[in-house]
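Supplementary Methods. Inverse-folding protocol.

Structures were first reduced to a C-alpha cell string of length 722. This string, shown here, constituted the complete conditioning input.
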C-alpha cells in the first residue's frame, strides 16, 4: 500500500509483470524516475531504456507502461488521469505515443501503492491483471474473452467486488485492430492502439483496488490551494470562464457559445428524483462548479436536457464533463439507452452516414445528431474501437463517397454489409459499422488500421495512384483534418490557436491533445477586454490574435507554442487533466479574469514538500520533450531511413495553405495559413528548443544540458548529430 518510506506524492514503487514468465516484481520509483516526474515522463524513460525502437509494436519485445504522477490521488483537483506509453502500430515511423485515461482507476492504482505498471512479454492464453493493494495476480480471462467491454467490465466487477475499478479491451483489441482502445466501466477511453497492444499480450482487462493513501507534505496548503482554485479560477469544461446562459452576476455572456452551459432554466430532466435546475454558478462558491458544464447542451441544444440524467466525471474533478443520458429513442431500435461520453464520438453521430443517407429527427426537432451520437458512442465503447479523433469517420466517408471502399471489396463482401441501415439514417448502423471495424472485415479493417496505413495501402497518399485522383493528406474538402503526413489529425490547431497551435500539433506521433490555447480562445471571453490583455501580461505583446484576424509569426507566438508543448508533458507526467489546466483565465471579475500560471508549481511544492517553480517544472518537461524528440528521430531513422525530422515528420499538408481560395493569408475572415510564415515559425521554435534548424533534431549540447548524454550518443551513432 501507499504511504511508505516517507515519500511524499509518489507511491514509491513500480510494478513489473512479465506475461511470458509470470514473474511479478516491484522496484523503487525514486530516484531513477524523479527527473522524469511520472506518468508520460516515466513511461518514456522505460521505453527508451528497455524497448528497441525497431521492435514490432505488437510483438513480444513491446511494452506498455501505465503510469501516474505525483499529483494523482493527492487531493489536487482534476488529477484523475492515467498515462500509457508504448510504440505506435498505426502512425508513420511507429514511434513512441501515449494513451490517456480518465475515470477512477488511476486513483485506485495509486492507492494500491504504485506509480507505474510495466507490462511486458506475452501470455499464451487470455488473462486479466488483478491488483488488490500489494496482492497482484495474473488471472484466467477465458470467460470474458470475446465479450464486449460493457459485459466484460460488469462481469469482472461482480466477481472481484464493487470496490474494484475495471478497464477492459473489446473485440477490436482482441483482433489486433490498430484503432482500438481500453475502456473503463464509466466509458473513459485510452486509445491510440492500446487495445491492440493488450490484445497481442492476451490481456483482457485490469482489475484494481487500492485501500492505501498518498502521503502529502503540506495537506492544509493543498486544501487551501484547492479552495482557491475552485472558487476563483476553474470554469466549465475546457476551463471556459464566462457562462453562455446569462446570469445575474456575470459581466459577460459567452460569445460564441462555450462549454459553460449551466444556468437558470437549464435542467437535468431525467434526474432520479425529478428534474434539477442547474441555476446560477457564481464565482466564490465551491459547491456550484459541477453545474457549469452541461456539455450536451453545448453539443445538441436544449433537446439534450430532456435526456440528461446527470453529469459525471473523473476522480478529484469538480467540473464533471461526462454527460450521462438515458436516450429513449434508441429503445425503438433495441439498442441500449444509457450513454456516457463527453467528446468523440458523441458529437460525431452523423459522420459515418455517407452522402445520400436519410438522416432524420427521431422525436424532437433537432435530435438526430444526439441520438445518432448516442448510438455511435455506445457502439464504439462496446467494441473498443478508437476513432483517431475523428479520422476513422472521415476516412470512411471519403473512401465511400469516392468509390474507393467499394473498389477494394469483393462483390460478396460488399453485399454482405447492411448498407440500408446507413442509407436510412438508422442508429443501428453505428453498431454495424463498429462491428465491421472491430472484426477487421475486408476494407473496414484497412480503414481501422489507421490513416497512414490506409493511405499507403490504397495509394491515397499520391493522386496518381488511386482512381479518385486525390491525395487524402492534401485535399481541401471540409472533412480533411490531417495536420501532417504522419496519419493523425489536428487537435485544435491553426483554426483555434493561429500559428502557435499548428506548431505544437506537429511535434507528437498522434494528435497532440493540447488544450492550452483553445481553452483560452474558445473560452467565450471577449478578445479585446479579456483574452488579449491577460495573455499579453503572461507572454508579451502580439502573442495572441483575434479570431480570423491572424498576423504574421512573432517571437511571443513561438514562446506560447513552446509553453503549451512543455505544458502538455507536465500534465501527462504529473498527471493532471489538460482539458482543465493550466488556469490561464479566471472566472472571477474581481481578478480581471486573470488566471494563475504558477498554480501547478504551488501544488507540486505542497504535495511533494520541495520547492518547485514554473521554471523548474518547465525544465523537467523540456527534458521529457527532448527524449520524445530523440525517440522519434531514432524511430524514423531505423524504420524509414530518415535523417531529417523537419522534412519527414513536421511537414504541413497543402490544405492548410490552399483552403478558402477567395482569401489570402492574414486577411480578415480566414484561418488560412501562409507556408513561408510557418516555415519561419519552425525555424524560431527549433532555435528556442535547441534543435538543429535544418533537421529538427536536438543538438548534443541541448541533450547534455538535460542529462541526456545517452540520447546524444545514440543519435551520433546513427549519424543524426555530431
Amino acid at each position: 500500500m501507499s504511504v511508505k518510506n516517507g515519500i511524499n506524492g509518489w507511491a514509491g514503487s513500480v510494478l513489473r509483470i512479465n506475461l511470458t514468465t509470470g514473474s511479478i516484481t516491484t522496484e523503487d520509483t525514486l530516484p531513477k524516475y524523479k527527473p522524469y516526474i511520472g506518468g508520460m515522463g516515466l513511461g518514456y524513460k522505460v521505453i527508451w531504456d528497455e524497448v528497441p525502437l525497431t521492435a514490432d509494436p505488437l510483438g513480444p519485445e513491446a511494452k506498455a507502461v501505465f503510469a501516474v504522477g505525483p499529483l494523482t490521488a493527492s487531493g489536487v483537483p482534476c488529477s484523475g488521469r492515467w498515462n500509457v506509453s508504448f510504440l505506435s502500430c498505426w502512425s508513420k515511423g511507429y514511434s513512441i505515443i501515449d494513451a490517456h485515461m480518465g475515470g477512477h482507476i488511476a486513483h485506485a492504482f495509486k492507492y494500491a501503492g504504485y506509480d507505474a505498471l510495466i507490462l511486458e512479454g506475452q501470455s499464451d492464453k487470455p488473462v486479466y491483471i488483478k491488483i488488490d493493494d500489494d496482492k497482484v495476480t495474473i488471472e484466467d480471462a477465458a470467460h470474458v474473452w470475446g465479450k464486449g467491454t460493457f459485459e466484460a467490465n460488469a462481469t469482472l466487477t461482480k466477481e472481484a467486488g464493487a470496490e474494484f475499478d475495471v478497464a477492459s479491451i473489446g473485440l477490436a483489441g482482441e483482433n489486433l485492430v490498430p484503432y482500438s482502445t481500453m475502456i473503463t466501466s464509466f466509458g473513459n477511453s485510452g486509445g491510440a492502439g492500446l487495445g491492440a497492444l493488450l490484445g497481442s499480450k492476451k490481456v483482457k482487462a485490469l482489475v484494481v483496488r487500492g485501500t492505501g493513501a498518498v502521503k502529502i507534505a503540506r495537506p492544509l496548503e493543498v486544501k487551501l490551494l484547492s479552495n482557491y482554485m475552485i472558487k476563483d479560477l476553474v470554469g466549465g469544461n475546457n476551463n471556459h470562464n464566462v457562462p453562455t446562459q446569462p446570469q445575474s452576476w456575470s459581466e459577460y455572456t459567452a460569445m460564441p457559445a462555450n462549454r459553460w452551459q449551466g444556468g437558470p432554466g437549464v435542467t437535468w430532466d431525467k434526474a432520479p428524483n425529478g428534474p434539477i435546475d442547474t441555476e446560477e454558478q457564481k464565482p466564490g462558491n465551491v459547491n456550484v462548479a459541477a453545474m457549469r458544464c452541461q456539455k450536451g447542451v453545448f453539443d445538441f441544444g436544449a433537446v439534450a436536457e430532456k435526456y440528461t440524467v446527470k453529469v459525471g466525471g473523473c476522480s478529484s474533478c469538480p467540473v464533471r464533463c461526462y454527460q450521462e443520458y438515458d436516450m429513449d429513442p434508441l429503445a425503438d431500435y433495441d439498442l441500449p439507452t444509457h450513454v456516457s461520453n463527453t467528446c468523440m464520438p458523441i458529437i460525431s453521430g452523423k459522420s459515418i452516414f455517407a452522402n445520400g443517407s436519410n438522416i432524420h429527427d427521431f422525436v424532437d426537432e433537432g435530435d438526430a445528431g444526439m441520438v445518432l451520437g448516442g448510438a455511435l458512442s455506445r457502439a464504439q465503447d462496446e467494441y473498443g474501437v478508437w476513432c483517431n479523433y475523428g479520422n476513422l469517420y472521415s476516412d470512411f466517408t471519403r473512401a465511400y463517397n469516392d468509390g474507393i471502399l467499394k473498389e477494394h471489396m469483393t462483390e460478396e463482401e460488399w453485399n454482405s454489409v447492411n448498407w440500408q441501415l446507413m442509407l436510412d439514417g438508422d442508429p443501428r448502423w453505428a453498431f454495424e459499422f463498429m462491428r465491421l471495424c472491430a472484426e477487421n472485415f475486408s476494407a473496414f479493417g484497412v480503414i481501422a488500421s489507421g490513416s497512414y496505413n490506409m493511405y499507403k495501402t490504397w495509394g491515397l497518399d499520391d493522386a496518381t495512384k488511386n482512381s479518385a485522383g486525390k491525395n487524402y493528406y492534401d485535399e481541401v474538402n471540409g472533412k480533411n483534418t490531417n495536420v501532417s503526413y504522419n496519419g493523425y489529425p489536428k487537435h485544435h490547431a491553426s483554426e483555434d490557436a493561429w500559428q502557435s497551435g499548428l506548431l505544437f500539433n506537429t511535434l507528437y506521433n498522434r494528435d497532440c491533445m493540447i488544450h492550452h490555447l483553445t481553452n483560452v480562445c474558445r473560452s467565450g471571453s471577449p478578445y479585446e477586454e479579456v483574452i488579449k490583455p491577460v495573455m499579453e501580461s503572461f507572454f508579451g505583446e502580439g502573442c495572441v490574435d483575434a479570431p480570423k484576424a491572424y498576423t504574421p509569426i512573432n517571437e511571443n507566438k513561438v514562446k506560447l507554442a513552446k509553453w503549451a508543448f512543455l505544458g502538455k508533458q507536465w500534465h501527462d507526467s504529473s498527471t493532471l487533466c489538460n482539458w482543465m489546466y493550466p488556469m490561464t483565465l479566471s472566472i472571477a471579475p474581481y481578478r480581471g479574469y486573470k488566471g494563475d500560471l504558477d498554480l501547478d508549481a504551488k501544488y507540486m511544492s505542497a504535495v511533494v514538500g520541495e520547492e518547485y517553480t514554473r521554471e523548474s517544472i518547465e525544465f523537467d518537461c523540456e527534458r521529457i520533450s527532448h527524449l520524445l524528440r530523440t525517440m522519434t528521430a531514432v524511430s524514423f531513422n531505423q524504420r524509414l531511413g530518415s535523417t531529417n525530422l523537419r522534412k519527414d515528420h513536421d511537414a504541413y499538408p497543402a490544405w492548410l495553405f490552399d483552403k478558402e481560395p477567395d482569401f489570402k493569408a492574414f486577411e480578415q475572415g480566414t484561418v488560412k495559413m501562409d507556408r513561408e510564415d510557418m516555415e519561419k515559425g519552425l525555424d524560431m521554435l527549433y532555435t528556442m528548443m535547441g534543435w538543429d534548424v535544418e533537421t529538427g533534431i536536438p543538438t548534443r549540447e541541448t541533450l547534455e544540458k538535460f542529462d541526456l548524454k545517452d540520447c546524444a550518443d545514440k543519435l551520433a551513432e546513427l549519424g543524426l548529430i555530431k
